[in-house]
Write a structure and sequence with these properties.
- The chain is of the alpha+beta class and 605 residues long.
- Strand 3 and strand 4 form a beta hairpin.
- Helix 11 runs antiparallel to helix 12 and helix 11 packs antiparallel against helix 16.
Length: 605
């Protein structure tokens, strides 16, 4: 038993092999770049998070010391507790307050301010860190009063917890303790803490910023070197960048964000990427250079292989493809080669194409003549009953002596016979086709007892253009033939307008009546792409479809349907032609592009 052997393409094998080698190399380079990027990004993230963690630990240590110191001071220090005694003399109270102030000054940090106040308002003092200026010292009384009001009136701000309070354009991280009518509040101004930590020597920290769950707490005005990269960002975008940092190799800054324990505050560090960007640029440049070199090498190699090994296959393939496109093909070599063997191959292929064209021309002529004969036969077959009926009607008119009516019918009948016996593949002007429709209509009126109305809406500019013969008369004949039992007044509508098909000017012929319409089976047959000349019904329309397909190839459209109000409808769209095409030689040429099915297109093909 013979089994079909699998076919292989030499060109495809070469192309696949080299493409595979190139792809593997490319993937390895990209994989290396991805791994290097991943390791560097991870290492950078760990480094900056470690540095940011150090700053956060410094802050948390200071916060722990404040918490511990306040507890010891307010619960265990007898001198401090004496401030709540109401019967102290003025001198004793002054001495105790001076001692308390010295005690607080020995523990206050640079960015901290400590406020002490008693419920009886007999004691009210504060101490400041060294970073506070004289202008800020002047506002300390107002700040103290504001903090006390916040702790008394705002339910979310409580003693024993770290809170965020905004005042005077600055945010303060505060912690307060209250016992036996006396309270102590420590406040750390976040901007001073940010400035202090940012200016630490031997650090690549560009800025230390504080945010909460909703907004930026720090003042950015003092961070001059960050204004340029962030000045185009809105407040919301900058907040997202600080709260949810997304870093990559080509940013000048790397951002990290860590929460501060026991608070709603986050610490965001913006670090200078001093070494990252140059390394990333160099890595990417080297990888791109390697890829370009590999691509150039493989392209040159494939080109040489294609020139010396695959040239014969390429030429044969090109010629075969041209032979399959149309009946008459022309072959021209892809290159004007100077290689003797390749030139001999070109000459042999050209001779083969010429021979094929001669055979195709002969076969096309034979097929055309066969189609013409078959169509003529069926056309005459479908018209025979009408001719016989006309002769019977003439005989009846002769017997009744209605010679005037008989004369009119003979004139119309002779014009009709002359028209239907012409070549069925010949194109006629639209004006001639409409004259034939009127002749046929007059014959029908003379032979019918009930009238029929013919409505015509014709664009007069289209009258000189060519159409297939009997393209309208066939539908008028069908309307009369299949509506004999219809007692209603029969109306035949004809509307011809200019349109376009695939960008080419065309004629749209809309035909309809108010009769019984098509059956579903007939509609399926008429709208199919097949042409059934041997159908038992609507043979004239099938004959017409076959003729249109021979003449116009695929450059036409038609559809058949029933009107919702009743009656058969047809729409035919044909390219505008002033001369009959040379069908025998296949030179009919319409729009080069293929038809596209759109909502406006007819779904008949």
């Amino acid at each position: 038993m013979n089994t079909e052997r699998k076919l292989y393409s030499i060109k495809k094998i070469f192309f696949t092999s080299f493409s595979l080698i190139f792809a593997i190399t490319f993937v390895l380079l990209v994989l290396y770049a991805s791994i290097a990027y991943s390791f560097m990004t991870r290492q950078t993230a760990e480094t900056i998070e470690s540095a940011l963690r150090m700053y956060r630990n410094t802050l948390e240590k200071e916060m722990d010391e404040i918490t511990s110191y306040q507890d010891k001071l307010i619960y265990n220090n007898s001198n401090f507790m004496m401030l709540t005694v109401s019967n102290l003399s003025s001198l004793e109270r002054i001495i105790i307050e001076q001692n308390t102030r010295k005690l607080l000054e020995s523990h206050v940090s640079n960015d901290e301010c400590i406020f002490v106040n008693t419920d009886n308002e007999k004691t009210s003092l504060y101490v400041l860190g060294s970073s506070y200026s004289s202008s800020e010292i002047a506002n300390m009384t107002t700040l103290k009063r504001f903090l006390l009001e916040q702790y008394r009136e705002v339910s979310s701000i409580q003693y024993g917890n770290w809170n965020i309070i905004a005042f005077g354009g600055h945010s303060y991280l505060t912690y307060g303790t209250k016992n036996n009518g006396i309270c102590i509040i420590s406040a750390i101004q976040l901007d001073k803490l940010s400035c202090f930590m940012t200016n630490t020597e031997n650090s690549n920290l560009g800025a230390l910023l504080f945010i909460d769950e909703q907004s930026i707490l720090s003042d950015l005005s003092y961070i001059t070197d960050l204004k340029q990269p962030f000045e185009t960002l809105s407040d919301e975008e900058l907040y997202e960048k600080l709260r949810y940092p997304s870093n990559h190799l080509f940013t000048k800054y790397t951002i990290a964000c860590l929460p501060v324990s026991n608070t709603s505050v986050y610490m965001s560090g913006v670090f200078h990427a001093v070494y990252k960007v140059p390394y990333a640029k160099l890595t990417v440049a080297l990888i791109i250079l390697l890829i370009l070199i590999l691509f150039a090498f493989f392209s040159l190699l494939l080109l040489r292989i294609n020139t010396f090994l695959l040239y014969p296959l390429e030429q044969i393939h090109t010629a075969a493809r041209q032979l399959g496109r149309s009946a008459n093909s022309t072959y021209s070599p892809a290159t004007n080669t100077s290689i003797l063997e390749f030139r001999q191959i070109d000459e042999a292929i050209a001779e083969l194409v010429n021979t094929k064209n001669q055979i195709s021309d002969q076969m096309l002529k034979e097929a055309f003549e066969k189609n013409r004969a078959v169509l003529q036969y069926f056309q005459l077959q479908t018209r025979s009953h009408f001719i016989i009926n006309c002769l019977k009607s003439l005989n009846g008119m002769a017997e009744t002596g209605d010679y005037a009516k008989m004369k009119r019918m003979l004139i119309a009948f002779s014009s009709h016979l002359r028209y239907i016996f012409r070549d069925n593949l010949e194109l006629v002007s639209l004006a001639d086709e409409l004259d034939e429709v009127n002749d046929y209509y007059n014959i029908i009126l003379l032979d019918r007892t009930t009238p029929i109305i013919l409505n015509q809406q014709i664009d007069q500019a289209l009258l000189p253009y060519k159409v297939p013969s009997l393209i309208i008369q066939t539908f008028l004949e069908n309307t009369i033939k299949y509506n004999k039992e219809n007692r209603n007044l029969l109306i035949f509508d004809l509307k011809i307008t200019e349109t376009a098909i695939n960008g080419v000017p065309a004629m749209q012929i809309m035909i309809g009546d108010n009769g019984v319409g098509y059956s579903q089976k007939i509609l399926d047959t008429l709208n199919s792409t097949a042409n059934n000349l041997y159908a038992d019904k609507h043979v004239g329309i099938e004959n017409l479809k076959h003729r249109i397909d021979i003449i116009y190839r695929n450059n036409y459209e038609h559809t058949f349907y029933n009107s919702p109000a009743g009656g058969a409808k047809a729409v035919i769209i044909l390219p505008l032609l002033r001369e009959s095409p040379q069908i025998l030689h296949g030179t009919l040429d319409f729009a080069a592009h293929e038809k596209e099915e759109t909502d406006e297109s007819f779904a008949c093909r």
